[in-house]
Amino acid sequence: MEYRFDETVRYAKTHEWVRMDGPEAVVGISDYAQDKLSDVVFTDLPAVGKEIAKEKPFMVIESVKAAEDVFAPVSGTITARNEKLIKSPELVNKDPFGEGWFVRVRLGNATEFDSLMDLAAYRKFVETL
Amino acid sequence: MIDFNPHRLVGFEMVDQGVPRQGYAIHSGNRKIGHVTTGLVSPPTGRFVGMGYVESVFAEMDCEVQVVIRNSPKAARIVKRPFYTSPHWR
Fold it and tell me: Distance between CA A59 and CA A66 in Å, rounded?
């Protein structure tokens, strides 16, 4: 199985991705993660304004198989969430790097983004799993 | 001994968003009245449904209860089973 990757984002070991968009970061999960979860049926998105801390769970994603915590790849404050996922959680499976984004975050610490894996490193990491 | 407070198996549908799962508590107000035996997203309707045992006084159609999902009570109501009848059923 060939997984899709995106070269414009950075990745965390827990399979979340982060894309910088101006001063804010967009967060989602990788194609590998959505494939392992199977069909996503519900995303328990956090409220706008919530503070999240790197490597701490900040929301839950439920698939037909499991309910899993999503770990914050960066620290900061939630500025927006993808309301489309409430009606159409399957967007996470269809387009994990695009329409299936979860939240936008105002970063608390810009250096955290730089410490995440780039595409080459993440691709290698997935191959070892 | 007579059980004055028997539990009955009922079907319920979530009013709030959330997937009920086996083992979750069912509350009425702040009191536990039963537990979920199975829960899922119904594939044909996309609704969050489940079954569980509740005290028999709550086993009435449209009775409003809460399912405790990750420590937060989410509204649900008792519905009639079957949840869904296939149009192809013969």
Answer: 14
Considering CB atoms only, which of A42, A60, A86 is closest to B41? A42
Is B51 a domain residue? yes
Domain CATH number, residue B55: 2.40.30.110
Alpha carbons B79 and B48: distance in angstroms, whole number = 12
* Model confidence pLDDT, tens digit, residues B21-35: 999 999 999 999 999
The domain tally of chain B equals 1
What is the reported pTM? 0.84
ipTM of the complex: 0.75
Cα–Cα distance measured from residue B28 to residue A35, given in angstroms and rounded to the nearest whole number: 38
- Which candidate from A41, A44, A86 shows the least CB-CB separation from B41? A41
Assign domain A10-118 to a CATH class: mainly beta
